[in-house]
Amino acid sequence: MAIITPLKNVFEWILEWITILLMVGLAGIVIVSVAYRWSGNSLVWYDEVASVGLAWLTYYASALAAVKRSHIGVPGLVAAMRPKFRVPTVLFAETCIIGFFVALAVLGMEVLEVLEGDTLVSLPEVGTELTQSVIPIGAVLFIIAEFLNLPTMIKEAREGAPVHGHA
User: Fold this and answer.
1) Is residue 51 a contact partner of residue 131, using CB atoms and an 8 Å limit?
2) Could you report the average pLDDT of every consecutive run of 10 residues in the chain (167 residues)?
3) How many CB atoms neighbour CB 112 within 10 A?
4) Which of 41, 89, 100, 135 makes a 20 to 30 Å CA pair with 62?
5) What is the pLDDT of residue 167?
6) Planar angle of CA 98, 10, 147, nearest 5 degrees
7) 161's torsion region: left (phi>0), alpha (psi -120 to 50) or beta?
8) Is the separation of the CB atoms in 8 and 67 below 8 Å?
9) Domain ranges across the chain
C-alpha cells in the first residue's frame, strides 16, 4: 500500500486540475456568451460547446469524486456485518462497479466508431469523436480510482471500520 498512496495523490491532483480547468473554461464560455448576447450579438457555437463542456466536467469530476471516495455509499452497512462477510461484500461491490465501468468504456469506444466522420453542427471542424471520447476516458479514470482505493477499502473491511466508498 506504500506505493498506492503517492500514485493516488498524483492521480487526485491531476483530476483536480483538470476539473478546475474545465470549470473555469465552462464559466468563461458562459460569461462570454452572455456578454455577446447582451451586446446584441450571439455566438452560434455556444450551446453546443457548453453542453460538451458540461459533459466533460461531469465525467472528470465523477472520477475525482471516486478517487476521493465521495460517492454515495453505505459504509455502516459493511462495518455492521459479521467479519467474515465484510471483505467478500466489498469485493463483490467493487467487482460490480468496475464491471459496469468496463462495459461503459467498451460501449463508449463502440459509440466513437459509430460517430466517426460526424462533426459538431456549429463547429464542423470539430469531430464528435473528440467530444464523446470523454465516455471511455471517464470510465477508465473511474476504474483507476476504484483500484487505487481498493487496498484501503479491504483494510477497513477487515478492521471493521466504516468503509467509505460504494459497498
Assistant:
1) no
2) 87 98 97 94 92 96 95 79 91 96 97 93 92 96 96 88 56
3) 17
4) 89
5) 46
6) 20
7) beta
8) yes
9) 4-159
Q: Are 22 and 56 in contact (CB under 8 A)?
A: yes
Q: What's the residue count for the chain?
A: 167
| Cα 67 to Cα 9: distance, rounded to the nearest angstrom | 9
Closest CA relative to residue 164, chosen from 100, 59, 77: 77
Q: Are 56 and 135 in contact (CB under 8 A)?
A: no
Distance between CA atoms of residues 28 and 47, nearest Å: 13
Residue 80 corresponds to which cell in the numbers above?
455492521
pLDDT, residue 131, reads 93
The CA dihedral of 18, 19, 22, 23, to the nearest 10 degrees, is: -150
